[in-house]
Amino acid sequence: MEKLIVGIGGVTNGGKTTLACKLKKALPNSILLCQDTFFKPVNEVEVGEDGFQQFDVITALDMEAMMNTVYAWMENMTTVHIEQKAPILSENKGPNILLVEGFLLYNYKPLNDVFNQRYYLSIPYEECKRRRCSRVYDPPDPPGNFDGHVWPMYLRNRKEMEKKVADIIYLDGTNSPDELFAQVYEDILREVQKPPRQLLTN
């Protein structure tokens, strides 16, 4: 059975999780893995020169554990239970599509290398700040965190990503969830329906 790994990346509050969950629901042969599951404990996340804990950098994530989960799926076609506080693998007949959702998918080369399709959602500063401020986080965002850390790191990470990765499909996160879903869903169906020899496998 061919494996298809799809990345759903982008800015914080850009609509990644909504899109990924809609795809998972519509694709019976898919499972979803969320990068946020792999954040290190709060006390292990460093405080930067900006005075904020550095949650928006790759070192805030246990990427080794994330890659082990991805590789296990690639090898065994096991199911990843993202509902658990920690990723748990259990044996299953296995779907053939792995949806990976997160904010730093393409900045980490080992992870970027496994994707067959890459999507990236972006929204303007004002809309991103509005959405971010309307949500409750654990731990909560300290005052000034969005302008002092979150948005500057988004711009920095995106610039780095654009220098290194070319084959990304950019999506407008201000479009309706249904529009975004329809576009990506059709793309995935076209890829899945290709003859096996045309599917990119890693």
UniProtKB/TrEMBL annotation:
GO molecular function annotations of the record: ATP binding; metal ion binding; nicotinate riboside kinase activity; ribosylnicotinamide kinase activity
- State which pathway it belongs to: Cofactor biosynthesis; NAD(+) biosynthesis
Q: Which residues form the signal peptide?
A: none
Read off the CDD domains from this record. NRK1
Is Magnesium among this UniProt entry's keywords? yes
Q: What chemistry does it catalyse, as a reaction equation?
A: beta-D-ribosylnicotinate + ATP = nicotinate beta-D-ribonucleotide + ADP + H(+); beta-nicotinamide D-riboside + ATP = beta-nicotinamide D-ribonucleotide + ADP + H(+)
Spell out the Pfam families in the cross-references. AAA_18
The entry's keywords: ATP-binding, Kinase, Magnesium, Metal-binding, Nucleotide-binding, Pyridine nucleotide biosynthesis, Transferase
Q: So where does this one cross the membrane? A: none
One Gene Ontology cellular component term attached to this UniProt record is: cytosol
**Biological process terms in GO annotation:** NAD+ metabolic process; pyridine nucleotide biosynthetic process
Q: Which family does it belong to?
A: Belongs to the uridine kinase family. NRK subfamily.
Name of the protein described by the UniProt record: Phosphoribulokinase/uridine kinase domain-containing protein
According to its UniProt entry, this protein's organism is Scyliorhinus torazame (Cloudy catshark)
